[in-house]
Design goal:
The structure holds three protein chains of three kinds.
Chain A lengths: L28 H5 L4 H29 L10 H20 L2 H15 L7 H23 L13 H5 L4 H28 L12 H33 L12 H35 L6 H14 L15 H29 L8 H24 L1 H7 L3 H31 L5 H28 L13 H31 L39 H15 L1
Helix pairs in contact in A: 2-3, 2-4, 2-5, 2-16, 3-5, 4-7, 4-9, 4-14, 5-7, 7-8, 8-9, 8-10, 9-11, 9-12, 9-14, 10-11, 11-12, 12-14, 12-15, 14-15, 15-16
Chain B lengths: L4 H9 L17 H22 L6 H21 L7 H27 L6
Helix pairs in contact in B: 2-3
Chain C lengths: L5 E5 L2 E5 L14 H36 L1 H9 L3 H26 L3 H31 L11 H4 L5 H5 L7 H5 L1 H34 L9 H25 L7
Helix pairs in contact in C: 1-8, 1-9, 2-8, 3-4, 3-9, 4-8, 8-9
The chains are: A mainly alpha, B mainly alpha, C mainly alpha.
């Protein structure tokens, strides 16, 4: 194991943040609120997403506190229902779906492609406003009594049996959905039409490929959720009967429409994270990603297969045995491209010169946890075992391993990796490494016991449970506390670094992407001259050549 | 999956000279074409109304859908200029139809097979 | 910013491509062609989302039509084919005038463009007017799903003009109640379609003002083109809605 570091910072006594950059080009609140600059919009998103993450996190804390004891003693059971519903709604629609795409994707895709901006800057800004409108509506629902249907809005519960704010929550999700559609649309257009000369499809960083695949899902999947929500709203307000069994409607149809989006939504959440991992793995093992083409196509394959598997969320809901069989088999297919990615990343590490900076620590966290999350997904995709494991804590543990262990780790890896590019400053390395380790430990302590709880049969979505489950629940709550610390630390030191961090220079990690070849933080126009891409992605020899050229010209 | 491959190759070719600009010249469709299509759409409408009054059994809905598909295709190809557009546009239309059919087809597969073996 | 030449690095040599930066070219595009291509592609992607949005409704329609076919037939008989047919013609004509509008913009005929847009606008309003008449009929007969829904026309078809004309037989209560599902889908689908029309007419109004000021006849016609795509898409939705909702088994039973 090497203890070396690849970090190369400029001489701190002479280095300065570039005089003109996108952060200080214009000043004043209005220059931010009316900006068309993708980097500024990314920063706006980063701030708002962090805000919603901590709201959702606080709700998660409440859930874990309630589950510390077998009785429902901290809050009433219906309050508990509202808390886990709002936790789900906020975390999924206001954190996970936009997390990497809207912040890192927004910031980096034009930079990586050598473009000046996304293709549709105004639409980009509009999608941030839609996100905020949705988010404020969600907060409004939370303050005025919440909603207790679960984030899935399952009918007929949502249409007939609850008196909570289903309509406003539905509207919040609807609006946020359009924000997501516009982001995805913008990315697809940008990737097709805005690439710099020489930037062919197979020279694009894998981060961009992953976003391309996720964007396809956003554009094609989200409208189906929108129409499902509209129908729920109509059912609730005027009773149109499309999902109402007493009038001849089929409640399962709602689930078909809902999961047609919400299963691909899982890939909307994880694919951009996988894109981040491809970048960090390559940079910190100083090697081109093994099997570049396979990894690129596996992203697209995940996106396409993602549309064929949705009914595995409905195995116990009463779909036909035959389609259960088909959807179960198709679900197994998704394991193939996911495994392709994991294996190729592992091969990238093989004989690489690996260093263990913070983003890499998070990346290792991702690889381990995502693999566990993915493999337990195979248990759930198998209809036989699913019948026993679904609606238990096993499934809760499974998707938290994928979403928190996978996506959130990837998000933090990405934030730490590109923080110097976004702000021009480095964070304190030792404490950030500590945060990564704390997060990993806290995460495992929180969610691993839940696998055991699930196999023992503890059902999800209840405020109370039999006393024999308490020990494992105490472990889980203790873990959640550690996890909370792990998430608070980055906020503190990253904020600190804004003023006191070391000057990062253009390329602190010696990475190859086009985004590292411009100043940090970048100019509003990204590049002084339109770059010409004359080498493959992850070409470290090209980078060495560039450095030698620089030395020669300076010397 | 294959529908995502094609633009890749298509774009690879025109890369050397000018970034990624697909500069095919703007094709102006003549009003005569529009007029013909318009007439065809009117005929189609009359036809679909007429057909619905015939007793064709199972063929009635099939014929109605077939006429609608033909009409829609005419609108897409000529009014919406897809016939004269880039491969990418054609592909986009194709991808939309594909996902639309997946949504309908795979949902229906559940409904059709629910009662199997139960009668 | 807009008229500064764009510098492109070609290896060691620097060549200044003198792209003429037209006033409507956004700064982040290299050429006008790139900008037009990008916005056109974006519009198509938006239409993809629209296809999927209506896709959910069509799925629901297909399932319930198979389940409750007699109810769908009886429900469909309540609709007026004449009004529906006229509306189809109105919409197709408006699609034609829109297509001609795009052609006028392409060939820079300002007054004809305004005429085409105004015609499209009027036809769109006409469509909505006829739709209102039809909706009013449904409201009067209590065929709007929900609290006041009435089964009268289906349980006792002789008391109902349309049902009698179509020769409907009285339905069993169980199936008659499912006509409500038919009308739910009728209102959801035509309502969503009408909403798209209303948005389109609003944009048309704005475009007429711009076109009168000569906004689209100076060579930059992306907006007209893309709006045309939207308008034709709305037309296509109706091309499917008409036979699916109005023309289910019109022949004598």
């Amino acid at each position: 194991m090497s203890t070396d570091t690849i970090v190369s910072l400029p001489d701190q006594s002479t280095a300065r943040i570039p005089k003109v950059n996108f952060l200080n080009k214009e000043n004043g609140l209005l220059s931010w609120l009316l900006t068309g600059d993708h980097k500024r919009i990314a920063i706006l998103y980063l701030i708002s997403i962090t805000f919603f993450f901590f709201i959702g996190g606080a709700l998660a804390g409440l859930i874990r506190l309630e589950l510390l004891t077998p009785q429902s003693d901290l809050m009433a059971t219906d309050t508990y229902n509202k808390v886990f519903t709002m936790h789900g709604v906020i975390m999924i629609f206001f954190f996970l779906v936009p997390s990497v795409p809207a912040t890192l994707g927004n910031f980096l895709i034009p930079l990586m492609l050598g473009a000046k901006d996304l293709a549709l800057p105004k639409v980009n800004l509009l999608s941030w406003y839609l996100y905020m409108a949705g988010g404020i509506l969600a907060l409004y629902t939370m303050i005025t009594g919440g909603v207790d249907t679960g984030w899935t809005f399952t009918t007929p519960l949502s249409t007939h049996y609850v008196n909570t704010n289903v309509l406003t929550t539905g509207l919040a999700v609807f609006v946020a959905g359009f924000s997501s559609i516009f982001t995805g649309l913008n990315f697809i257009v940008t990737i097709h039409k805005m690439r710099a000369p020489g930037m062919t499809w197979f020279r694009m960083p894998l981060f961009v490929w992953a976003h391309y695949a996720a964007s396809i899902l956003m554009v094609l999947g989200t409208p189906v959720l929108a129409i499902a929500i509209v129908l729920v709203a109509l059912e609730r307000t005027i009773g149109i009967g499309v999902f109402d069994p007493t009038k001849g409607g089929d409640p399962l149809l709602f689930q078909h429409l809902f999961w047609f989006y919400s299963h691909p939504a899982v890939y909307i959440m994880i694919l951009p994270g996988m894109g981040v991992i491809s970048e960090t793995i390559s940079t910190f093992s100083r090697k081109r990603v093994f099997g570049y083409t396979a990894v690129a196509f596996s992203s697209v394959a995940i996106a396409v297969f993602g549309f064929f598997v949705w009914a595995h969320h409905m195995f116990i809901m009463g779909i036909s045995n035959y389609s259960m069989l088909v959807f179960s088999l198709l679900t197994m297919l998704v394991a193939v491209p996911s495994a392709i990615k994991i294996f190729n990343w592992a091969f990238t590490l093989y004989k690489g010169s690996i260093t263990f900076e913070t983003p890499m620590l998070y990346t290792f966290g991702f690889m381990g946890l995502f693999t566990i999350g993915g493999l337990t997904g195979v248990f759930l995709g198998t209809s036989g075992t699913d019948i026993h494991l679904t609606e238990t804590y096993f499934i809760v543990a499974h998707f938290h391993f994928v979403m928190v262990g996978g996506m959130l780790m990837a998000f933090l890896a990405g934030i730490h990796f590109w923080w110097p590019k976004m702000t021009g400053r480095m964070y304190p390395e030792k404490i950030s490494q500590l945060a990564a380790v704390v997060t990993f430990i806290g995460f495992n302590l929180t969610f691993f016991p839940q696998f055991i709880l699930g196999t023992l049969g503890m059902p999800r979505r209840y405020a109370s449970y039999p006393p024999e489950f308490q020990i494992l629940n105490v472990f889980s709550t203790a873990g959640a506390t550690i996890l909370g610390v792990g998430y608070l630390l980055p906020v503190l030191y990253l904020t600190w670094s804004l003023k006191y961090g070391a000057i990062a220079g253009n390329n602190p990690w010696q990475a190859t992407g086009l985004e590292w070849q411009t100043q940090s933080p970048p100019l509003t126009e990204n590049f002084l001259v339109t770059p010409i891409m004359d080498h493959e992605a992850y070409d470290y020899e090209w980078l060495d050549g560039q450095k030698q050229k620089e030395v020669a010209s300076v010397g | 999956m294959s529908q995502h491959h094609e633009p890749v190759e298509a774009r690879m070719n025109d890369h050397d000279s000018q970034g990624n600009l697909e500069e095919h010249e703007h094709h102006i469709v003549s009003p005569v074409v529009y007029l013909i299509i318009f007439a065809a759409l009117l005929v189609g409408t009359a036809l679909t109304v007429f057909a619905s009054y015939l007793e064709l059994g199972i063929l009635n809905p099939i014929l109605a859908i077939a006429i609608a598909v033909v009409k829609a295709t005419l609108v897409v190809l000529f009014f919406m200029h897809v016939k004269y557009s880039s491969k990418l546009t054609k592909l986009t239309v194709g991808a939309g139809m594909f996902t639309f059919l997946i949504l309908i087809g795979m949902t229906l597969s559940d409904y059709i097979s629910r009662a199997w073996g139960r009668w | 910013m807009s008229d500064s030449p764009v510098l492109v690095h070609h290896g060691e040599v620097e060549i200044a491509h003198e792209h003429p930066h037209l006033p409507y070219q956004r700064h982040h595009f290299e050429t006008m062609a790139q900008q037009n291509d990008a916005t056109n592609f974006a519009m198509w992607l938006f239409l993809l989302t629209e296809i999927m949005f209506f896709g959910g409704l069509f799925t629901a329609y297909l399932i319930y039509r198979n389940w409750y076919y007699p109810a769908f037939v009886a429900g469909s008989h309540q609709l007026n084919v004449i009004w529906g047919g006229i509306n189809t013609l109105v919409l197709i004509t408006s699609s034609f005038t829109m297509a001609m509008g795009v052609w006028c913009a392409e060939t820079r005929r300002q007054s004809q463009l305004v005429l085409c847009l105004v015609l499209t606008f009027i036809l769109g309003l006409g469509f909505l007017g006829i739709k209102t008449i039809e909706y009013k009929e449904k409201i009067e007969k209590h065929h709007v799903p929900g609290f006041h829904y009435s089964l009268q026309s289906f349980l006792n078809p002789d008391s109902d003009k349309e049902a009698k004309a179509a020769g409907d037989k009285p339905m069993a209560l169980d199936m008659a109640r499912h006509t409500e599902v038919y009308f739910s889908l009728y209102f959801a689908m035509t309502g969503m379609h009408a909403l798209h029309m209303i948005i389109g007419i609003g944009i048309l109004g704005f475009m007429i003002l711009r076109a009168r000021a000569g906004g689209y006849t100076t060579g930059h016609i992306t907006f007209v083109e893309n709006f045309g795509l939207y308008w034709h898409f709305v037309d296509i939705v109706w091309i499917f809605l008409f036979p699916l909702l109005y023309l289910i088994s019109r022949h004598a039973q």
